[in-house]
Specification:
Length: 243
């Protein structure tokens, strides 16, 4: 199996983080494909916004034209069937006895990376790009850097391959994620992320805020809103005190 060092597969959910990671990959690799997962998530609106985001990246960003390849949507509804979480059931979001929010879906990122590795093997992609973050997150253990490094080792041993898993957001917060998007694609990419991506755990596309659509109260909305506010403050500070 030949791995192309200029081909990347991005885990693309349709959210802010994965869209930023997609832009990051397009800025570095000649050919980029995307993979998404339907696992019975209650905020499945994210699956519905994916095609529009991909279309806009192809049409609105000429410097990336020709680089964005095939999109793959994988049916993982079995995960939703065996999970009893606030992302796969209509229950109130809350913190559990173990300190983790009940939005944690055990095994989710492990399965995502396993399936992504299997697809990358078939497609000849050397690089996997994912939006896990250990800085500004809800404490999910499968988002930790140690977990990702262990998965990279397991994939390479199990497939006799040399995959490289990139997590460009691992050590930055949401404000820095907005700033990274601006660096990669300018104001047009910031606006695309603000208007078209989806992060809200409740799947709310009715309420519009400065940072985008969402209920405004779930943990995902709160992180996104707080990051947007800090990003705007940083922008204002730079404008007031230019270097």
């Amino acid at each position: 199996m030949r791995q192309d060092p200029q081909t990347a597969l991005v885990l693309f959910s349709g959210g802010q983080d994965s869209t930023t990671c997609l832009a990051w990959a397009l800025a570095r690799f000649e050919h980029v494909e995307t993979i998404g997962f339907d696992y019975g998530q209650r905020h499945r609106i994210e699956i519905e916004v994916r095609p529009r985001i991909l279309h806009r990246i192809r049409s609105d960003f000429q410097h990336w034209q020709g680089q964005l390849g095939e999109d793959h949507l994988i049916d993982l509804t079995v995960l939703g069937q065996i999970s009893d979480t606030a992302l796969t059931r209509s229950v109130e979001i809350a913190v559990q006895e173990n300190g983790l929010p009940n939005t944690f879906v055990p095994g989710r990122n492990l399965l995502f990376l396993g399936f992504a590795g299997a697809l990358a093997y078939r497609r000849g992609a050397k690089h996997l790009v994912a939006g896990m973050c250990e800085t500004d997150y809800s404490g999910y253990p499968d988002c930790r850097d140690d977990t990702i490094k262990a998965m990279q080792l397991a994939l390479n041993l199990g497939m006799e391959a040399r995959f490289v898993i990139h997590t460009p957001l691992m050590w930055i917060d949401k404000a820095q994620t907005w700033a990274l998007a601006e660096t990669l694609g300018g104001q047009p990419l910031v606006e695309l992320i603000r208007e078209d991506t989806h992060s809200c755990y409740n799947g709310d596309r009715e309420h519009h805020h400065e940072w985008g659509f969402g209920c405004g109260t779930c943990p995902a909305c709160q992180l996104r809103a707080q990051g947007w506010e800090r990003f705007q403050s940083l922008r204002a500070s730079v404008a007031t005190h230019p270097q």
